[in-house]
Recover the amino acids of this structure.
């Protein structure tokens, strides 16, 4: 059984997930996630020694198609949906603190 | 009520025009959509053009002229696809989902994009950024979720057919609560190409219909191998419509004890499952009690696995390539500002839960453990299918609950999925079929589960239950 999730844990995962939380949200989400994880403790405490993990219901590996050139989605149509575009590329704000 | 099959037959025979059929359905939408709110978008102009093309003989196929509603997490080229999220509001996909392309090739007439819980995360359609859908049987009640708009659209007569997606019960539970048929196919039977991903190892697209035969008809059109989905099964499609009348003589039916007696199953729902068992026995099935012990752990395992996959899948909403962008000084701040403004509370909750379950120090205790439990569930189902052809249990613990009843406590909402989740974890098919009403007069659905690719067996068993009610 894992230790109860704390507000520090939730602040950490919110940062990892690129989500900003208010102080009130932090408290509320911590309480709700603790409730959900308490329910998950019956799984966490189950003896599963030697049981392989299942990541996927189908035993598929390395599904490959023939290496044939075919048309792909229209570039202009894709770019038309982007919030900002420049020179037929996606435009984003500064990444490393360099001058924009 | 006119079935999809009747519409298709009449249009094909020239007895009715597709335009006339469409206008009848648009009139029902005009009358009730203001109350029900099944749709994020009613595609009047596109639908009228499609119906005209059918009537001109330019579009033919198994569903020519049949109105179909699409869950708004299925990509439609040039038509807004929102997932009921602010983060995708206004986005027009540059391609069609494979199921959309297959339906179009079969002559279907798309009437609209249906409401859902944001990114299909929820069991009531109350998590939509665009407001809840209401249950056509009682407007104070939820339609279930996450495919609540699709279930309500069929129940209200807005379209005889609709598509939904089912990750933990999102087709079957709303089907049960709205009194319609809903089927989650075997994982891989229907291409997921163009289905906006929630939890990729669990998601499947499937049919809603008012009758079992119509559900079979729709599934036959959308099923089949697709090179654009690497998890698509490359096997011959089992026959669906042709065997519908074969009955259940000698069929081994197991009443799934762990789910019939699971936490929160209402007595009136349990009585309908018992009545269904009797109806199948009366029709010649051999009915006995079945056990899938690990199914009891399904809910807990699911609420670790599905959020973990979601936290990864939803990383793509970063304000760069499509959808919402909230500008900021640098890209990292822009990503966070966009996601904070664009996602609703349930989506944030699941992203954080999944991120936590995958994070260093907790991976083994939570995500790793849940994946092992998934193996146990698969093994226990396989053992049960040595003795049984079909398993029977409730679809949803209760009939439709009131709007607002479960929104404050996420865990109470999650418990709705206790009977539907095990099939998603196992990758097996399951169907919910209406079987009478609860004490409150609202519809009850019973659920039939089977091994991979047993859709034909599930559909003919459901057809027997449907017939027993008449």
């Amino acid at each position: 059984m894992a230790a109860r999730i704390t507000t520090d844990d939730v602040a950490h995962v919110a940062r990892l997930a690129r989500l900003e939380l208010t102080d009130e949200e932090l408290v509320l989400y911590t309480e709700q996630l603790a409730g959900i994880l308490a329910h998950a403790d019956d799984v966490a405490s189950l003896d599963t020694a030697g049981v392989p993990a299942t990541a996927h219901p189908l035993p598929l590996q390395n599904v490959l198609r023939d290496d044939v050139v075919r048309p792909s989605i229209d570039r202009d149509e894709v770019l038309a949906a982007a919030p900002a575009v420049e020179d037929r590329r996606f435009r984003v704000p500064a990444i490393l603190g360099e001058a924009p | 009520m006119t079935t999809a099959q009747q519409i298709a037959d009449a249009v094909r025979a020239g007895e009715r025009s597709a335009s006339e059929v469409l206008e009848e359905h648009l009139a029902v939408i005009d009358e009730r959509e203001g109350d029900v709110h099944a749709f994020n978008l009613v595609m009047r102009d596109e639908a009228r053009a499609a119906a005209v093309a059918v009537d001109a003989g330019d579009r033919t196929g198994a569903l020519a002229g049949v109105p179909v509603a699409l869950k708004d997490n299925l990509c439609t080229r040039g038509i807004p696809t929102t997932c009921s999220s602010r983060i995708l509001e206004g986005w027009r996909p540059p391609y069609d989902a494979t199921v959309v392309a297959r339906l179009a090739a079969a002559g279907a007439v798309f009437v609209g994009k249906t409401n859902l819980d944001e990114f299909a995360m929820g069991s009531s359609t109350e998590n939509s950024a665009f407001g809840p859908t209401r249950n056509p049987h009682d407007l104070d009640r939820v339609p279930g979720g996450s495919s609540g708009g699709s279930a309500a659209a069929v129940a209200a007569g807005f379209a005889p057919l609709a598509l939904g997606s089912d990750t933990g019960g999102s087709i079957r539970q709303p089907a049960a609560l709205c009194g319609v048929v809903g089927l989650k196919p075997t994982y891989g039977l229907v291409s997921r190409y163009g289905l906006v991903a929630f939890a990729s190892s669990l998601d499947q697209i499937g049919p809603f219909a008012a009758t079992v035969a119509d559900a079979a008809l729709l599934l036959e059109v959308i099923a089949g191998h697709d090179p654009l989905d690497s998890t698509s099964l490359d096997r011959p499609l089992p026959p669906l419509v042709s065997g519908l009348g074969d009955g259940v003589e000698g069929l081994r039916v197991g009443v799934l004890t762990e789910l019939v007696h699971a936490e929160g199953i209402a007595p009136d729902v349990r009585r309908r499952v018992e009545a269904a068992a009797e109806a199948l026995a009366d029709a010649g099935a051999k009915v006995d009690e079945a056990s899938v012990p690990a199914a009891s752990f399904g809910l807990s395992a699911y609420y670790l696995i599905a959020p973990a996959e979601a936290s990864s899948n939803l990383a793509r909403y970063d304000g760069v390539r499509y959808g919402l962008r909230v500008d900021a000084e640098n890209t990292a701040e822009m990503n966070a500002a966009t996601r904070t403004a664009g996602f609703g509370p349930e989506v944030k909750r699941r992203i954080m839960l999944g991120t936590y379950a995958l994070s260093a120090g907790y991976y083994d205790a939570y995500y790793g453990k849940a994946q092992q439990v998934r193996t146990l569930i698969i093994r226990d189902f396989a053992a049960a299918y040595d003795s049984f052809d079909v398993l029977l249990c409730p679809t949803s613990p209760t009939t439709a609950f009131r709007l607002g009843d479960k929104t404050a406590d996420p865990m109470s909402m999650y418990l709705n999925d206790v009977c539907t989740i095990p099939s998603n974890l196992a990758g097996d098919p399951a169907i919910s079929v209406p079987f009478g009403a609860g004490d409150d007069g609202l519809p009850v659905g019973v659920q039939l589960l089977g091994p991979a690719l047993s859709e034909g067996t599930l559909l003919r068993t459901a057809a027997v239950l449907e017939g027993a009610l008449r």
